[in-house]
Amino acid sequence: MPHALQSVVRRTAGSDEFTEIQNAENEALQARRNKQNKGKPTVSVEIPESSDKAIATLFRVFNTVGLSLSGGGIRSAAFCLGVLQAINQRVGLNKIDYMSTCSGGGYVGASVAATMALTSGQFAFSSSDDFSDQAALGHLRNYSNYLLPRGDRTALIKSITVLLRGLVTNIALTITVAFACTAIVVWAYPSRSLLQKRSFIPALFHLSSGNLTLPLWAFLFLTAFLLFWALLRSVTSRTGSEVGSPFATIAAWLIALVALLAWLDLQPFLISKLFDVMEKSDWGTSTFEYIAGVVSAVAGGATLFSGKLGAIIKANEHNRSTRAAVQRIAAATFMWIAAAMLPLFLWLCFLLLEVASIRDDLHHNNIPYPLRTGCFWTMEKSRC
User: Which sign does the torsion angle of CA 220, 221, 226, 227 carry?
Assistant: First the structure.
């Protein structure tokens, strides 16, 4: 046993509080055994051989029995119910001293504990003579596999239609939001020459303004507010935390406003740069397919190895060695990159949709069809 763990064990085992709690727990178990009068033995203890008295005291072995019911939703509840019925028929639940439950196992565990408390320790879900299910329990067991319930031969097809419904809904919502955002950007920037001449919010009202005008003004206002807050703080005698103060709330909202305005003004800048890139390079369907392939490969790898990556992160969470730190950082980095791939890919599709929608008044015709201006909407090569 490591030295650090030995010191913790000695402090715990040697404390009066620990001993009092353990003795009180054993007295409660003995009282329960005496009440049931099932011939159960007295709570006894076996002390292992050890040169360290504190460790030997902590690792005493009592003649008590515990039962753990794992989680897993309604399916776990149905499975654990069958286990409890089998134990009660063959051994008797009165021989169980402890019950530990989690999630789905807690459904049936709580039911058993509540009914046994009301029936003087009797198991209400079956008897030793009759092991058949009641109607309610039979329904629970038959339909706990709710995706493919028993007795329905068309359940597989119905389950596929449910999955397709969700998939179609997500795609429809994504396309709707993308086209709505595209319409807003095209309204603000109907032509390519305006992309780097207007800040986004004024452009919505077709007002003239320099690029990044609003984010810069918002940043200056935030800076002035922080300076005023610091000055006010230095001349007052207020103590305590400032996290919940009105000034901190206002500053947080201002930071969020600056970030939002900067992100909005970033869109026309990126669209303009994408125009330039597509003119100067051979950007076509093959490039888009290559990016889509990379995104699919990374996302698929993350899905396939997500369990192993999560296990690596969890296993090395408290390990302070350099190797564990490298493994933990590498696994977390890969998962973050994989999680960001799909949103970035959708963002790229949105920018390409903007390029295909905004009128190119600079008369550059090197952008591939059908991403060239006007071709996306009309599909007329004569305009391209």
Answer: positive
